[in-house]
Amino acid sequence: MWSEEQKSIIKSEHLIKQVIAGAGSGKTATMVGLLEEREKQNSILPENTLVVTFTKKATHEFKERCQKKGLSSRYHISTFHAFCYYALKHFDNSKNWSKFKLLSQSKKWKITKELLNSIQFEIGGVPFPILFKNDAKHFKEISLEKYHTFSRSFQWWKDKNNYFEFDDLIFDFLKFLDSESSNTVKNRWKALIIDEFQDTDEVQLQIIKKMNFKSITVVGDDWQAIYGFRGATPKPFLEFPNHFPNVVQFFLSTNYRSNKSIIESSLLPLKKNKEKITKQVKTFRTEKGIFQVERIKDTQEDPMKIWNEWYKKDSSSIILTRSNFRKHEWIENGVPALQVMTIHSAKGLEFRTVLLDLVLGWSEDIEDIDEAEERRILYVGLSRAKDNLVLLIPDLTKPKRLADRMSEDFSIRNRFRNRTLRWARLW
Q1: 215, β-bridge pairs
Q2: Does 28 carry a binding-site annotation?
Q3: C-alpha to C-alpha distance for 427 and 424, rounded to whole angstroms
Q4: What is the DSSP-derived secondary structure letter of residue 104?
Q5: Taking a C-beta distance cutoff of 8 angstroms, is the pair 303, 359 a contact?
Q6: Which of 137, 242, 314, 330 is deepest in the core (most CB within 10 A)?
Q7: Alpha carbon of residue 352 to chain centroid
Q8: What is the 3-state secondary structure (H, E, C) of 134-173?
Q9: 228 a known binding residue?
């Protein structure tokens, strides 16, 4: 049932584990297997175990898997933010958390507009999402002093009106852990299993350290760290042994999802990334699949022509895009909304056939772009495909354009393949 790699993790009695799991390597199944083993050995009680997932969907899936295995219902399984809210609401006496509610995005921008009204001409027409992007970098460049004034006013408004944002939960919980009343929380949860650890941030790492867990298992893949815009960074995962010197590292290196040609192709964009954990990806499936590069000359007609051809072959085909704007363009041209997704929303999912759009929708803001992360985003998109992967790239390349720089490996490979085919026909 279990591979040797999975067994080594499940059976290991080491208290601090770092599981470096490649795409499609069965990491969720392994984590559930670890809980199952602990219940058999009666080593760490379910009520003392906290399982942290990255999304609500992943939380639901994890709970379902535990239920199917007949495991205890006493595990606390939730996202990081949901756990912080639960702990603050039940154990933090400094604030009446039951009165507080989550601030919606529309309400946030409405209040932001009111608070920034006096400096609207200094800000100009910069949209709020851009103004506050990358830790409000653009706002701080306009005026650091006015940014801090706004931050204080905004926090005061939230406290007065009983609102919180997700980041508030993290910072408030971190502060709470320095209080005496936090001992109840620390004594209750002795073991932590945390998924997608490559998408954590420095503050969440501090929380993990302050909780004083007896047992910690972090699972992640630094190659799939794609949430820099939220403040996440692969650093805590890359540097985990520095923070927990007693850690033992394990690898889940077998890809059970994709066929060999897709696995080999998906690894190409990562070659230029220097800060990464080196791992050997093993293929499990022996069936032949399709990896195909399509050069797009006419950006209006060619993509839809290719989509229609693949839809006839596989009606469950999915298009993956870099941006919501590009996603909506596909939908406006007639692709069903449920069959177009951004790469970020497809993370953790898998599809039989993927058409990945490298033509439009990728950032051209060369100064602010993190090219290493963009290559990881491309890797995530490529590695969603199980059987068929079709990469759409521009026919005419522009060296300065980000999408073209990332598709050059595929372009060279495709040109060489075409030449080989021509020579074969001549021979």
Answers
A1: 191
A2: yes
A3: 5
A4: P
A5: yes
A6: 330
A7: 21
A8: HHHHHHHHHCHHHHHHHHHHHHHHHHHCCEECHHHHHHHH
A9: no
Q: Is 24 annotated as a binding-site member?
A: yes
Contact criterion met (CB below 8 Å) for 19 and 7: no
300 three-class SS? coil
* Angstrom distance (rounded) from CA 423 to CA 427: 6
Can you give the pTM of this predicted structure? 0.88
> Is residue 397 part of an annotated ligand binding site?
no
Other CB atoms within 10 A of residue 215 CB:
18
Residue 348 known to bind ligand: no
> Is 403 among the annotated ligand-binding positions?
no
**Other beta carbons less than 10 A from residue 203's beta carbon:** 15
Judged on CB neighbours under 10 Å (0-12, 13-18, 19+), 375 is: buried
**Paired residues of 53 in beta bridges:** 79
Environment class of residue 157 by beta-carbon count within 10 Å: exposed (0-12), middle (13-18) or buried (19+)? middle
- What is the C-alpha to C-alpha distance for residues 372 and 275, in angstroms, rounded to an integer? 9
C-alpha distances (whole Å) from 361 to each of 158, 164, 223, 339, 387 are: 35, 32, 21, 17, 25
SS3 (DSSP) at 323 = coil
Question: If phi over 0 gives left and psi between -120 and 50 gives alpha, with beta otherwise, what is residue 276?
Answer: beta
| Dist. CA 386–CA 285, nearest whole Å | 10
Tally of helices (H runs) and strands (E runs) in the chain = 20, 15
Using DSSP's 3-state secondary structure scheme, residue 9 falls into helix
Q: Confirm or deny that 22 is annotated as ligand binding.
A: yes
**What amino acid is encoded at 189 in this protein?**
W
Tokens standing for 36? 């199952």
Helix axes 80-91, 166-176, angle to 10 degrees: 50
